[in-house]
Design goal:
The complex is a heterodimer of chains A (201) and B (99). In chain A, 77% of the residues lie in helices and 0% in strands. Chain A is mostly helical. Chain A has one domain. In chain A, helix 2 (29-50) packs antiparallel against helix 7, helix 5 (132-147) runs parallel beside helix 7 and helix 6 runs antiparallel to helix 7. The chains are: A mainly alpha (201), B alpha+beta (99). Chains A and B meet through helix 1 of A and helix 1, helix 2 and helix 4 of B.
């Protein structure tokens, strides 16, 4: 029996157990790509169909409700796709999708996400529509940065990108929708492909 | 008596026990079902290894009730943490010395 190989295997098993028991590693990269596509479609639709292009913090648009509806639809579609594809990933690895690690990820994601969501609704009700897009980026970025401790570490850098785009959008309001499309659309697609090719194949 | 000649702890010679300790090293508390899922073992097998580690005072059991259903959580003791770290150090030394 090869003792040295035994010890190396032992260490590999310890490492793998530590990672598997503390991080949710079935997060789907393809879901990120899909979320990016929904976001780009949503941004385009809001801009072209309802003329949504805020250029200052106080900004009013006649069809604000429709734009909120688009944003919520994008969110629901993105989360739905992420849940379905991640569950499929977990099943492929013969793990349960709903386990200690996914539960922990979800709890830690909820706190910054709901805080941001409620704050943005308050901003909208006060006519500060121009801040909505950059604030979603900032809070989403904080959420991802936090989530990185409970899933792939790479998610942290995606979070930082969203935060930077959010801050830029908050300063240059006239570019806020472009920043939003870059963050939620392009960055998601690039990162989703990266996660997919790095971990899912 | 618990430690074999090369300094490796007997309690960690088993794959399941090593797995339990690894999972508890990075999780404050885990319940029986979570451990079972991570390790992919039967109830009886897991229970016997848990008992073994409990006897060595490497892990402690905390029993509570959620909606009148028993919920058992396990966590690592200070002694368990030290033994596990020592074990990792010894493994590291052995591998280094053989290179």
């Amino acid at each position: 029996m090869n003792k040295e190989q035994d010890h190396i295997n032992n260490i590999a098993e310890i490492r793998s157990m530590m990672e598997r028991s503390s991080k949710f590693l079935s997060l789907s990269g393809l879901a990120g790509v899909m979320a990016g596509i929904y976001a780009l479609a949503g941004a385009y639709f809001a801009y072209s169909a309802f003329g949504f292009s805020p250029d200052q913090i106080h900004y009013s648009v006649p069809e604000l409700n429709s734009i909120i509806l688009i944003a919520v639809s994008v969110l629901v579609l993105a989360i739905g796709t992420a849940v379905i594809l991640s569950a499929r990933n977990a099943k492929g690895k013969e793990e349960k999708a709903w386990n200690t690690t996914s539960r922990r990820l979800l709890v830690n994601v909820s706190v910054p996400l709901f805080t941001g969501g409620i704050l943005i609704l308050m901003l909208l009700s006060n006519g500060l529509t121009g801040l909505a897009a950059p604030f979603t980026l900032i809070f989403y970025g904080l959420t991802l940065y936090n989530a990185g401790s409970f899933t792939f570490n790479d998610v942290k850098s995606l979070g930082l990108i969203q935060i930077v785009l959010g801050l830029l959008g908050a300063y240059f309001i006239e570019y806020s929708l472009v920043c939003w499309a870059l963050g939620f659309g392009v960055a998601h697609i690039v990162y989703g492909l990266y996660i997919h090719f790095r971990y899912e194949r | 008596m618990n430690v074999s000649i090369n300094g490796l702890h007997k309690a960690f010679e088993n794959r399941v026990r090593l797995g339990i300790m690894s999972a508890l090293a990075v999780n404050e508390k885990l319940d029986f079902n979570a451990l079972k899922e991570f390790l992919d073992v039967t109830d009886g097998n897991l229970a016997s290894h848990i008992k073994n580690l409990e006897k060595a005072e490497f892990i402690v059991v905390e029993k509570t009730f959620i909606d009148k259903k028993p919920n058992t959580k396990y966590s690592m003791t200070a002694a368990g943490k030290k033994a596990f770290e020592d074990h990792l150090n010894v493994l590291e030394q052995i591998i280094k010395s053989q290179k």
